User: What shape does this take?
Amino acid sequence: MSSITQPVGGHGHGHDEHAHHPTGIMRWVTTTNHKDIGTLYLWFSFTMFIVGGIMALTIRAELFEPGMQILAPERFNQMTTLHGLIMIFGALMPGAVGFANWMIPMQIGAPDMAFARMNNWSFWLLPPAAILLVLSLFVPGGAAETGWTLYPPLSIQSGMGMDLTIFAIHIMGASSIMGSINIITTILNLRAPGMTLMKMPVFCWAWLITAYLLIAVMPVLAGAVTMLLTDRHFGTSFFNAAGGGDPVLFQHVFWFFGHPEVYIIILPAFGIISEVIPAFSRKPVFGYASMVYALSAIAILSFLVWAHHMFTTGLPAAGILFYMYATMLIAVPTGVKVFNWLATMWKGSISLEAPMMFALGFLFLFTTGGFTGLILAIQPVDVQFQDTYYVVAHFHYVMVAGTLFAFFAGIYYWLPKWSGKMYNETVAQWHFWLSFIFFNVTFFPMHFLGLAGMPRRVPDYAQQFTDWNQVATIGAFGFGLSQLVFLYAVVSAIRSGKPAPAKPWDGATSLEWTLPSPAPYHSFETPPVVK
Amino acid sequence: MNADSLPQRQEDRAARLRAANRRTGLGLLAISVVFFVGFFASRMLSSPDVSIAVVGVAVLLYLAVAIGRHLRK
Assistant: This one.
């Protein structure tokens, strides 16, 4: 662990500050405090991660051997759909917003978010949406079985579960837009004196750009699913071929949202990694300005590549070439970021506490996912791998090893500031190594399965795919159980961890580390002056 | 300068900040509403290709302006 630079007792939460606030459950329902709301987002995200994870384990259990074991085929498809939707909209996005709520005001020296009440509302829209999604399993016809992409014509023909899914997406979209408005306004208007935009921590920059992306794509998704709804119930034919509509248009619109969505999820993770690596290398981040420019370039390029998800739909040759090269072009700013993280570590005084281990794990695994993405960007190759397990392996390397590992890094990094307690380093190291090993045991074999031609979203498969499927299933259960170690690490730290100093990490330099640990309920009521 | 001018100044500053927050928030909300409504409106244009191109160009312009103007600060 980094040396303790400024011992501060575990107080600092200022119980008197709570005196005029509701207590118990009402505190959490009515709170407008960014730290409380950040905590709510993070626990909600973890809960959804468990729910989505249980669905993933059910899927993997079914795939342990060929033939039908525990799920009917339609239930299997419902599980894959809900697993995707819950992980993306319920776990990863709210998790990232949780980090934003906790850290952005403290990193820019603001007392709270710009719209505190709207912040509360943004969060409390999520649980009903999540309940709708999960409840859709139990309505007649079951949940949507289209996969998270909701492609017509199946999504037009599905039962009532699809309506619940559309409604849930509307609610979660509204929550995301409100959250984004709040984040942009907070960053633009509430920065401490002297903190110019180009002095902000990279995490804040990553979130500023992410919020702009959300404002752009969420209305498009909302428009697309509204059209689906009217096609289903009001006789329109936007995507219904029988009425002259165009199902492929939905694919265009969905991926116009869906590809930037990947970056909406990964950019905050980039921000977290850009905080952790300099802190544990004891050097400022290498090439700050180029990091910001790279983030911006990734955001803009993310809107120019959506049709690489549709290479098999019969695009014109010029379109294929454009989307192929544009997709490869994204590797350039992403490569700039990876280079800068490596250059930050170069000749740094590196220490390998849990946050840094997860950051290194992120670097290694995300880059692997990035490379398989480059392979999939090549259209002739993509045509072969379309809808195979190679794609499943690729996006799990990006989403799980990318975003989730960055979240773990961020949680271990900031937990002392949030809770005022240190986590147990040994337990956290166990969590890292178990997660790292079992993640690879789960998802690396999927590359082989995909290369051999195993299609995704099937509950049964040919005999020759059995071995690697069994390895993947064992890995998945190991990865799932490893997260109990994470839960133990966090809960034991909060309940009985050693008191954390104000700045437990030598190399941490941003404003939040000037506050005591845990951070006071109201921080920076008088803005600090940044030079 | 009289004795209560400092709290008055702080109150004025807080009011200005709230107004600025409202302006920024409403501006962003307006953008998202325009994208939502514009998405439907663009379907009234000729083909699906034109429709997605119009929305795409609008979104790209918004992003280039929104992000680009901050990069100089």
